[in-house]
Design brief:
This protein is of the alpha/beta class. It folds into three domains: about 100 residues, 2-Layer Sandwich (Double Stranded RNA Binding Domain), CATH 3.30.160; about 45 residues, no CATH class; about 280 residues, Transcription Regulator spoIIAA (2-Layer Sandwich), CATH 3.30.750.200. It contains 17 helices and 18 strands. β10, α9 and β11 form a beta-alpha-beta unit. The structure holds iron/sulfur cluster.
Amino acid sequence: MIIHTHGHTRTYEMEALLKLFRPAEKFAFSDAAECPEGEHISAVLISAADGTQTLSCSARIGDMVRSSGKTLDSSVQGFLLDREISGLLYPMLCDLTGMRPMWGMLTGIRPVNLLRKFAARTGSVEAAAEEFRTVWHVSEEKTQLAEDILSVQQPILDAAPKNSVGIYLSVPFCPTRCRYCSFVSNSVARMRHLIPEYYRRIYDEMELVSGIMDEFGLKADTVYIGGGTPTTIDLFQPMDWLDRFFICVNPIREFTVEAGRPDTITRENLTPMRQFGVTRISVNPQSFQDDVLRAAGRPHTAQDVVDKYLLAREIGFDNINMDFIAGLPCDTVRGFCESIDRAVELAPESITVHCLALKKAADFYQSLPMPDADAVSEMVAYAQKTLTAAGYRPYYLYRQKNMAANLENVGYAKPGFESPYNVMMMDDSQTILGIGAGASTKILGGRRGIERLTECKYPNDYLARFDELMVQKAAQMREYLGCIVK
Ligand code: SF4
C-alpha cells in the first residue's frame, strides 16, 4: 500500500493512522503530483494566493475508492493539519475495511495525558471526554477507561514534591532472551565479561547525576531499577550507591526493583533489597500456562513463579507487581483467563496487562498458533472486568506501535499501591534521569516541552564511549535544567 503526500510533510502521522488498520504491513511512499493508481491513502494540500488551503484526501483498498476534501485557513498547520487529514481519512478507512479501532484515530502512546490536556483546554473532563468520542472517534469503553485512570492519577501527580525527579537505573542484562523481547537486553552469557566495568561506570554516572542534581536543587522522588532483568546481576553495590547518592539524602516515595523473571529470583538477592529499603518488586509470570511460557522462550514454569512470589512474601515484600501478556503464541482466551484468575488468587498488589507487539510476533512466531485480534480483545476485556471486580483499579496506560488488536498496556493496582514512578514516567509528568546503557533521560519543561538526552543503547558502546557520553550528558543536563529550574 502506498502513502501519498503532496504539498505537506505529514507522512509519519499518516503512516501511524494507516497502521491502526494494517498494523504489521510495510508501506511504500510517494510525493508525486499525481495520486497513485493502486491501493493507497493520499492527502494533497494546495495553498491559494489568498492564504486558504485546499485539502483533498482519498483511500483505495482493492477496487473500492473513497475521497473527500475541505478548505482550511492558513493557520491550520502541524498538529491541527494532522487532525484534519485524519478526520478525512479515518472514516474512509473504517468504511473500506469494516474496522472500528477502539482508540479511534488516536495514534499517540499516551491517551490519558492527551485527555488531561484536553480537559485543561476545555475546562472540564466531561468536555474532554466528549471530544475523545466525537472528534477522535474513541469508543465509549476506552474513553471511560482513560477517564477512570485520570481520576486515580490526579492525587499521585499532586503529591509529587516540587523540583523532584525520578531516577532510573538500567541493568540491560537477562539470563537468556525471551523470544518476544522488544527491549534492549543482552544475554548475560555473552556479556558477563562487561559487568565489572559496567559497575564502575554506573557508579561514575550516579556521582555525576547526583552532583548536577545538587547544583539545581533537585531531589529524587522515586528510584527504579529496570532492565533487562536487574536480578541477573548482584545488585548489592548498585543499591548501596543509589542509597548513598539519591535516597539517604531525602525521603523518596518509592524504590522499585524489576526482579522480573523468576529464574533469577533467590533468597540471596531478595534479602539485601529489604535491607536497602526496596518498597516494590515485580515477579512476572507473563502467563500461568507452561506451554505458553515454553513457546515464549522463558525457561521457568508457572509453579516457579508461585514459589518465588511466596518467597518474596516470606521475606517481607508487601508490594509486588505481576506482568502478563495478552496475545502470546499458543495462548487461548481460556488459558489467558485462567492466568488472570490465578493471579487474583495470589493477590499481588498490582497487575500489569500488556498486549504483544505484532512486529516481534511476526518475526519470531510464524510457525506457532497466534490468538487473533478478537481473541486478544476478549483477553484484555476479561482482565479488566476480573481485576476491577477483585478491587484493582486501572492507574496507568500506554500504547505501543504494532500492538496486538491495536489495544493498550494497562497497570492495575489495589488502592494505595499505584506506582508513582509508572504514573509520572508514562504520563511525562516528571523529569526522569536515566543511568546506564539503554536508560532514557527526559527533562520536562524548556523550549520544546520535553528534552530527551542522547542515549547509548548497548552496554559495549556505553562502556567504549563512556567519557565522551558523560561530557555530552553533563552539558545537556546543565543546558536544559538551566532553562527550567530557577
Ligand atoms: S526478561 Fe524481559 S527484558 Fe529480559 S529477555 Fe525477557 S522480555 Fe526481554
